[in-house]
Write a structure and sequence with these properties.
The complex is a heterotrimer of chains A (616), B (323) and C (355).
Chain A (H helix, E strand, L loop, with lengths): L2 H21 L27 E5 L2 E5 L10 E7 L14 H10 L4 E3 L6 E3 L2 E6 L5 E6 L13 H12 L7 H5 L8 E5 L3 E5 L7 H4 L7 H9 L2 H5 L17 E7 L3 E6 L5 E2 L11 E7 L2 H9 L5 E4 L1 H10 L5 E8 L2 E7 L15 H7 L2 H10 L2 H8 L4 E3 L22 H10 L3 E3 L2 E3 L7 E7 L3 H15 L4 E7 L1 H11 L4 E7 L9 H4 L22 H15 L3 H18 L2 E3 L1 E10 L2 E2 L17 E2 L5
Parallel strand pairs in A: 2-12, 3-13, 20-21, 20-22
Antiparallel strand pairs in A: 1-2, 4-5, 6-7, 7-9, 8-9, 10-11, 11-13, 14-24, 15-24, 16-22, 16-23, 17-24, 18-19, 25-26
Helix pairs in contact in A: 3-6, 11-13, 17-18
Chain B lengths: L1 H30 L6 H4 L6 H11 L5 H13 L12 H36 L4 H15 L2 H15 L17 H39 L2 H8 L4 H39 L4 H11 L2 H29 L2 H5 L1
Chain C lengths: L1 H10 L1 H18 L1 H4 L19 E4 L5 E14 L4 E25 L3 E10 L17 H37 L1 H16 L2 H11 L6 H31 L3 H9 L3 H9 L4 H24 L11 H5 L5 H6 L5 H24 L7
Antiparallel strand pairs in C: 1-2, 2-3, 3-4
Helix pairs in contact in C: 1-13, 2-4, 2-13, 4-5, 4-7, 4-9, 4-10, 5-7, 6-7, 8-9, 10-13
Classes of the chains: A alpha+beta (616), B mainly alpha (323), C alpha+beta (355).
Chain lengths: 616, 323, 355
């Protein structure tokens, strides 16, 4: 044998030995009773909204939270490509709205605990008994960041010359055209503004939280026309061009990296020692590309605040006792995930059905829809996809909505029930394959947007769930844009998994989805020419609920309409809701005055938050 | 004079090239079923009027030939148009190009500094264990999927805390002094540079080795050896010059190759460069942005080749007659 | 020539190791249906993200036993908000070799039920754990590998004839034809390749079947590479066409196409082989990059690239390292291809300009 041969033999033996070692594994049962988990308490003190006070003739807002320390920086993050504009009237995406919302306050705001409307830039408001006249009282002595007073002129200018004149994104204006007329806005003196609408319109009150623009800065831009306005105060604008009313003002914007805000020295809120807020010197938003990068940055202590999903929660929960951050459970998210069926029975302009007639029959059969609903295994979806951090969902209103209809009860997957329902409608099961009463095999396409791991995973599970009923499901994740095109233009889809974010405060925002001629009435979409063609009885009811709900002004009066709408969706199931993720957020311990709430999130009182141990 | 004429001719030749590039890419993008307005359409708070306005603004209501014509005319005029969200394409590109140039030039510099000597050494020691090991090591470098490598390095950064997590500057960058700023950027660049360096080193080292082998095998080196010159003089004085020359041509390609090779790395490291911008633009079918960045890429590649050619002419006048 | 190549490959230590590794991988992929205990789409939703199954050969009493495993049970801990996986020790599941399991069609033709290994009824054997949908990672690796490891070859099969013919024609005719054809090829080359790749991939119409999508991605990959290849071929043809035998073929009156295909292109064989082996890895990497971005192979189909998508997530890398296996497989197979390519080049064309 050569020397090399010995080596080969030697290594061969070693590998064989290792393999044997790997094969011999001893089964040692764990000893019982070592698993004791101390329960953790995370009760937080109730939050009190700031109150109005008058000091030296200036009507301040006074924080009720404990007095903190000035200085410090809070680093937060925004996912995506960062803001597209800092002009609050040009925002078409969420990030831009948040960024400009920091700088420009609205007249009113929302109480983060109760969801009630609360004063902000306005010190008070009143609504006439007939619900048509809204009177706003402004703060005397409140100033823009450049020292100029904030007056009724600014408010009237913002509404009449920017919003109603059609500058920027016209969505607010478009939704306020009531009986072909826009509300009128008039000032009485320097500090009183009166809005008058022709008919009571409940959602209007919350629209008054729209930012107010400084007239002396915006008026020249408005004069230069709409095209100029579109690029006014865009991301290329210089920080010194911003004159703001909010707690913070733009300091630096580094594209694709971060947005830095500094404190507005003229902010109109003070603490109980009468010092001007905000406490923080700087507020930084890092622009991160995806959730994953965000977590990495938090772990590396580059971020102070983070919102956690799925399996990350367990990791942070385990780390929490020994770490410098604290977790808060904000309850269910406003996002809703649903499975929608295409109920469209109409033809396109060429006389071709959008949905094949055979499929139309199935999707328009209530028993079929309910069977689909009963087949869906929400429990395991929450466990697998949201890692248990979620709650099954049965209504279109999100679980933290103040209008949630709590009478609608959740239920579990029930294949037997589903099969009975299908049988009732004449479907038959042969060799595990489902046929309708005319002998057609039940087979359809299920779409969702590719690249969204969560929805893709839901799709895979729904496909299996429905295949348990003998249906053949072709699950096709497709590009987001093409999917939207199918939903809103070509209508050639069968089932789709999508998500929408609604407002937990104002159900009227969902009217685009639920009104029979709504722009996002996906499950039975009509072209503008079709109007309300082929309206189903329960669609008619939905229209009625939304119209009446918007006309009533008081919460108690509106609630029954929106309860009814949820009940209709719950029983008719054009859209089958799946689950809502639960929002869990983490923030470093060094930040105080943290009053998290389901509606307001973690930093709704950003001006009151302070850094305990900053080196200033 | 001849040189100047040649350069002029080369520049003129690039024009049809650019036209073909633009036509091909424009039509490919417009073929796509992707609707740039999809996100707006699905946003319940955006009114149909706004969507219509956007459509008209982007010219999506016109036939594709008209769209191309409009685009081409304004492109020639130097107007790159606006992105689907209304920002100026030129300013978006201006934000990103310096960052990408910074990254790529550092990577090129490093790979040349390391790759060329390693290639020479491998060639000189052809078929020795050193050469074999170099081949395997560079193969390993070529075999790691860049994005996977980048993800692993990010994990490494989190676990050790030695490196920042992506980006180019930290949150407090604006308040730093000049040295702080310099260090901050360097600190952020280390990981992405390392990934790109590992991947592009292999190619360069191999190319250099092949060239050097080529030259070492040539008649005049044999002749020089026969003359009794010392091996060192033969290699480092005579052979080296001739082996490096063809590498210059490579520089142009190297540059453009990195431009696209960096996209995935930029994506993982959240680096504010051109690659990530294009990636995001393609996903949203933001035609003006994609077109502009593609043209940028093409121009850079052509320019790189042109510069390489000119350098070649300067170092080796024989080429001119051949052209 | 081929004999010599094989002998040389076998002589070189690294190349031999690479050949063996690739051999094992391709064999495993060929017999994927048989080796994989589960089919590609099989999923057990109560078993999402379970760690790799443990196989015991000594039972709890310390005695040797037939290999067996326990199923995992999952529970959600309300306090720690964590999903915990524990063994269900109430029942042992013995591992059976060559016995009947899930039915499949071997190579898509022969219906079979036997698998290399399975467990008894009700047992679950996940050698490399499961993914988010409770699908066996080991099985999916095998099926995904079929796509990842063939896509490069298929792209080359499409690309090489095009490049050869294009380069051949351009070089052979020269003059205006050459000029036009080369300008077009150059403009394709002038578009940074990865960008062209993602643009083309994003154009793919929705609602395609997975086979269609697979084929189109092959074509897209081919579209990227042909131009550069054609250019090199053209350069070679330029010098070959003046050789005596080409001239004599011309004088006999052979048709141009015949001369190109019969007399000129065969002369480029060794270059083509070298270029081919050296470019397979880059196509494997391109596919994985594309799928990683979500533009390549789509769920529920598997490819190593799209399986790696899950490895993007931080917690997955930390707590579920088995999800990283596709990355290592890509690495190993690309490395093996590179080593083999290097050796072939050294044998056939030692001074080649091909990288």
């Amino acid at each position: 044998m050569t020397r090399r041969g010995y080596w080969v033999l030697f290594f061969g033996l070693v590998i064989a030995a290792l393999l044997c070692k790997a094969c011999i594994v001893r089964d040692v049962p764990p000893k019982a009773g070592q698993n004791t988990n101390a329960k953790q308490q995370s009760a937080t003190a109730a939050y009190t909204m700031p109150k109005n006070v008058t000091l030296n003739g200036i009507e301040y807002l006074q924080s009720q939270a404990p007095v903190g320390k000035f200085g410090g920086t809070l680093v937060s993050s925004t996912i995506g490509e960062g803001p597209k504009t800092f002009n609050p009237f040009n925002c078409k995406d969420n990030t831009s709205s948040i960024m400009s919302g920091i700088m420009y306050d609205g007249l009113l705001t929302t109480n983060p605990t109760t969801g009630d409307v609360a004063p902000k830039l306005a010190k008070a408001y009143s609504i006439s008994p007939d619900g048509k006249v809204y009177t706003i009282y402004l703060r005397k002595g409140a100033k823009w960041s450049d020292g100029k007073p904030i007056t009724a002129d600014d408010v009237v200018f913002t509404w009449n010359n920017i919003i109603f004149a059609g500058y920027g994104d016209t969505s607010t204006r478009d939704s306020l055209v009531i009986d072909g007329k826009l509300p009128s806005v008039r000032k009485y003196g320097d500090y009183i503004v009166v809005f008058a609408i022709t008919r009571p319109y409940a959602p209007f009150l919350r629209m008054l939280s729209t930012p107010i623009a400084p007239k002396h800065i915006f008026a020249p831009a408005v004069k230069k026309g709409k095209e100029y306005f579109d690029s006014f105060l865009s991301t290329t604008a210089k920080p010194k061009d911003f004159v703001v009313s909010g707690a913070f003002k733009l300091k630096e914007y580094v594209p694709a990296q971060r947005v830095v805000f500094e404190r507005n020295p003229n902010y109109y809120e003070i603490n109980s020692k009468n010092e001007k807020l905000p406490y923080l010197d700087k507020l930084v938003y890092l622009i991160v590309g995806d959730l994953n990068n965000e977590v990495l940055k938090f772990e590396a202590k580059e971020l102070d605040v983070i919102s956690l999903q799925g399996s990350k929660v367990a990791r942070y929960k385990a780390m929490e006792p020994k770490s410098d951050f604290k977790l808060y459970n904000l309850g269910p998210d406003t996002g809703t995930m649903y499975l929608s069926l295409n109920l469209n029975t109409r033809k396109d302009s060429k006389g071709k059905y959008y949905v094949e007639p055979i499929k139309q029959k199935w999707f328009n059969d209530l028993n079929f829809r309910r069977a689909v609903d009963y087949a869906i295994d929400r429990k395991n979806m929450v466990l697998n996809i949201a890692n248990g951090i979620g709650a099954p969902l049965f209504t279109p209103e999100s679980l933290n909505s103040i209008y949630l209809n709590k009478k609608l009860k959740p239920y579990n997957k029930d294949l037997n029930n589903a099969k009975i329902l299908l049988k009732k409608s004449g479907f038959t099961l042969k060799d595990g394959k489902l046929f309708d009463k005319d002998g057609h095999r039940v087979e359809f396409n299920l779409y969702t947007n590719a690249g969204n791991t969560e929805r893709e995973a839901i799709g895979v599970m729904i496909k299996q769930d429905l295949e348990d009923l003998g249906m053949k499901v072709n699950f096709k994740p497709i590009e987001f844009n093409s999917l939207v095109n199918k939903l809103v233009s070509t209508f050639d889809w069968d089932m789709v998994i999508m998500g929408l974010t609604g407002s937990p405060l104002e159900p009227n925002g969902g009217k685009n989805v639920w009104l029979s001629d709504g722009r996002l009435h996906m499950f039975n979409m009509r072209t503008p020419q079709e109007g309300k063609a082929g309206i189903l009885p329960w669609e008619k009811q939905l229209d009625e609920m939304f119209t009446k709900g918007a006309l009533a002004t008081k919460f108690e009066d509106r609630k029954p309409y929106y309860d009814k709408y949820q009940e209709i969706v719950y029983t008719q199931k054009p859209m089958i809701y799946i689950y809502s993720p639960i929002r869990i957020v983490a923030i470093r311990n060094k930040f105080k005055n943290i009053y998290p709430s389901s509606l307001g999130g973690l930093t709704h009182n950003i001006e009151e938050i302070y850094e305990e141990s900053n080196k200033k | 004079m001849d040189t100047l004429k040649y350069i002029l001719k080369r520049i003129l030749q690039t024009i049809p090239l650019l036209i073909i590039v633009s036509v091909v890419s424009f039509f490919i993008i417009r073929l796509s079923p992707v609707d740039p307005l999809a996100e707006l359409k699905l946003n319940p708070s955006i009114s149909p009027e706004t969507v219509e306005k956007e459509r008209a603004r982007l010219g999506l209501d016109k036939p594709i030939i008209v769209q191309y014509g409009k685009w081409a005319i304004s492109f020639v005029k130097g107007d790159l148009g606006v992105t689907s969200t209304g920002e100026k394409v030129s300013s978006k590109l201006a934000e990103r190009i310096p960052n990408t140039l910074l990254l790529t030039s550092i990577v090129i510099l490093l790979t040349w500094l390391v790759g060329v000597p390693l290639g020479i050494l491998a060639a000189v020691r052809w078929k020795t264990p050193f050469d074999r090991i170099m081949t395997v090591v560079t193969s390993i470098g070529m075999a790691i999927p860049s994005f996977f490598f980048a993800v692993l390095l990010l994990m490494f950064a989190v676990r050790t805390g030695w490196f920042p997590i992506g980006g180019l500057t930290s949150a407090g960058y604006a308040d730093m002094n000049i040295f702080g700023k310099f260090w901050d950027i360097t600190h952020h660049l280390i990981l992405p540079v390392f990934v790109l360096f590992t991947i592009s080193l292999a190619g360069l080292q191999r190319q250099m080795r092949a060239n050097m082998l080529d030259v070492l095998d040539s008649d005049y080196v044999k002749f020089a050896r026969a003359k009794g010159l010392s091996e060192n003089v033969v290699i480092y004085k005579h052979a080296l010059r001739n082996a490096v020359n063809p590498m210059i041509t490579l520089l142009g390609f190297e540059f453009a190759g990195l431009l696209s090779g960096a996209a995935l790395t930029e994506y993982v490291f959240q680096y504010p460069g051109l690659g990530r911008l294009i990636l995001e633009a393609v996903m949203k079918s933001d035609i003006n942005l994609v077109m502009a960045s593609l043209m940028m890429g093409a121009v850079m590649l052509i320019l790189g080749n042109l510069i390489a050619d000119i350098l070649l002419i300067i170092t080796d006048p024989r080429i001119r007659t051949g052209a | 020539m081929f004999r010599e190549v094989i002998i040389q490959l076998w002589k070189d230590k690294f190349a031999r190791a690479a050949l063996i590794v690739l051999g094992i991988i391709y064999l495993a992929l060929f017999f994927a249906d048989f080796i994989a205990p589960y089919t590609k789409d099989f999923s057990d939703r109560t078993m999402a993200y379970v760690p790799p199954s443990k196989v015991f050969t000594i039972d709890e009493n310390g005695k040797f036993s037939k290999p067996y495993t326990y199923n995992y049970v999952r529970e959600f801990d309300q306090n720690s908000l964590e999903i915990k996986y524990k063994f269900d020790r109430s029942k042992k599941h013995y591992i059976k070799f060559f016995s009947k399991g899930q039915p499949y069609k071997f190579l898509g033709l022969i219906p079979m039920k036997r698998h290399l290994f399975t467990t008894d009824e009700g047992g679950r054997m996940f050698l490399l754990g499961t993914d988010i949908n409770g699908r066996d990672v080991f099985s999916r690796l095998l099926f995904g590998g079929r796509i990842s490891m063939t896509i490069g070859f298929l792209a080359l099969l499409v690309l090489f004839p095009i490049g050869l013919l294009y380069g051949g024609i351009s070089g052979y005719f020269g003059g205006k034809v050459d000029m036009l054809m080369m300008r077009f090829a150059e403009s394709i080359m002038a578009i940074p390749s990865f960008y062209l790749l993602i643009i083309l991939a994003s154009v793919l119409p929705s609602g395609m079947t997975s086979t269609q999508r697979f084929l189109l991605i092959v074509i897209i990959l081919a579209l990227i590479g042909w131009a550069g290849f054609a250019r090199v071929v053209r350069g070679m043809v330029l010098s070959i066409k003046n050789e005596d035998y080409v001239q004599s073929a011309k004088s006999i009156g052979a048709s141009d196409l015949r001369i190109i295909i019969k007399h000129i292109l065969p002369q480029t064989t060794s270059f083509v082989i070298v270029a081919m082996t050296l470019s397979v890895p880059s196509y494997i990497l391109s596919e994985s990059g594309l799928s990683f971005l979500g533009l390549g192979i789509q769920q529920p189909d598997a490819s190593w690239g799209n399986m790696l998508k899950e490895a993007q997530e931080f917690t997955n890398i930390l707590y579920r390292p088995w999800l990283l296996t596709p990355g290592f497989l890509i690495f190993v197979s690309v490395l093996a291809f590179n080593l083999i390519g290097d050796t072939i080049r050294d044998v056939l064309d030692p001074k080649s300009k091909v990288r």
